[in-house]
């Protein structure tokens, strides 16, 4: 009898330990100087396995009744990710997940990350990416939705998403605003997710609470180049001017030391 209970007890202990690991999460948004930016940390076995900080806002279309109470008018709700949100997280070698809920779970954002290998000219290389987004919202919630027709919960999801692609072992960073389109279960309406000031790493975090080396998004790389290019061109122009002045000075000095030969042959008798 005791032998029969032991496997069941071990299973329960394992499940409890796994649940505890999943719930070891921290919302550090209060540390951000930007009130619109949130910071989330997922830890397992007292080790950070996922870190994410970003500012997020959803643009959600919804229908209301027109003044004639017959026709419908499409309005737009701007829903920011609120500070103090509840969160859950999961980590594994190749899959990670972050779940964020706010306003008594009227809104829930789920981010799914995937790490995989790709064949390149340099051989097999590992990358991670944001593979799926799911946003659940309740149009009966009165903070952002006003008199919605047929109020209730809807889910907006991404379709064949491959975003934030980053080499394994690095964090993704992008200060510029990015827009990701989602499709809602509410009559297939398009929902937009606006992300900015993003820093994310869902795998291979080497130090606790510390991001690894950043991989900047193309927009940030281009903006950085645009900022440094005038400086580089200015330095090159200054160097060209200095070289030109040096060449002119040397040429002038050499020509000044040369004997001037008179063009009038009658002056040759005075030479020597």
Topology:
Layout: H1 2-22, E1 25-27, E2 37-44, E3 47-65, E4 72-80, E5 86-91, E6 95-102, E7 107-120, E8 123-138, E9 153-157, E10 163-167, E11 171-174, E12 178-184, E13 190-201, E14 214-216, H2 218-257
Parallel strand pairs: 11-14
Antiparallel strand pairs: 1-2, 2-3, 3-4, 3-13, 5-6, 6-7, 7-8, 8-9, 8-10, 9-12, 11-13, 12-13
Plain-language structure description:
This protein is an alpha+beta fold and 272 residues long. Helix content is 22%, strand content 44%. The protein has two helices and 14 strands. The chain has helices at residues 2-22, 218-257; strands spanning 25-27, 37-44, 47-65, 72-80, 86-91, 95-102, 107-120, 123-138, 153-157, 163-167, 171-174, 178-184, 190-201, 214-216. Strands 1, 2, 3, 4, 5, 6, 7, 8, 9, 10, 11, 12, 13 and 14 form a 14-stranded mixed sheet that branches. A hairpin with a 3-residue loop joins strand 5 (86-91) and strand 6. The longest helix has 40 residues, at 218-257. It is elongated, with a radius of gyration of 32 Å. The model is unreliable at 9-13 and 19-23 (pLDDT under 50).
Low-confidence stretches: 9-13, 19-23
Please summarize the sheet with the most strands. 14 strands, mixed
Distance between the ends = 130 Å
Q: How much strand? A: 35-45%
By oligomeric state, this entry counts as: single chain
Structural class designation: alpha+beta
What Rg, in angstroms, do the CA atoms define? Answer: 32 Å
Mean pLDDT: 83
């Amino acid at each position: 009898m005791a032998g029969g209970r032991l496997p069941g007890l071990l299973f329960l202990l394992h499940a409890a330990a796994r649940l505890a690991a999943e719930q070891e999460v921290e919302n550090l948004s209060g540390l951000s100087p930007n009130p619109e930016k949130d910071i989330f940390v997922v830890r397992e076995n007292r080790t950070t396995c996922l870190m994410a900080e970003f500012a997020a806002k959803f643009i959600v279309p919804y229908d209301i009744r027109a003044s004639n109470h017959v026709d419908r008018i499409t309005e737009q709700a701007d829903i920011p990710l609120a500070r103090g949100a509840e969160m859950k997280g999961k980590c594994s070698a190749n899959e990670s997940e972050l779940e964020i809920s706010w306003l008594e779970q009227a809104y829930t954002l789920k981010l799914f990350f995937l790490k995989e290998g790709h064949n390149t000219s340099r051989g097999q290389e590992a990358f991670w990416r944001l593979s799926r987004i799911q946003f659940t919202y309740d149009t009966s919630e009165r903070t952002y939705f006003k008199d919605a027709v047929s109020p209730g919960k809807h889910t907006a999801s991404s379709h064949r998403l491959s975003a934030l692609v980053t080499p394994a072992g690095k964090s993704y960073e992008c200060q510029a605003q990015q827009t990701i389109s989602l499709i809602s279960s509410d009559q297939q309406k398009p929902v937009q997710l606006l992300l900015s000031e993003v820093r994310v790493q869902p795998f291979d975090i080497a130090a606790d609470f510390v991001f690894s080396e950043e991989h900047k998004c193309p927009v940030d790389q281009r903006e950085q180049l645009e900022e440094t290019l005038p400086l580089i061109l200015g330095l090159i122009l200054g160097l060209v001017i200095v070289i030109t002045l040096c060449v002119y000075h040397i040429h002038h000095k050499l020509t000044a030391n040369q004997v001037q030969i008179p063009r009038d042959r009658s002056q040759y008798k005075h030479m020597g």
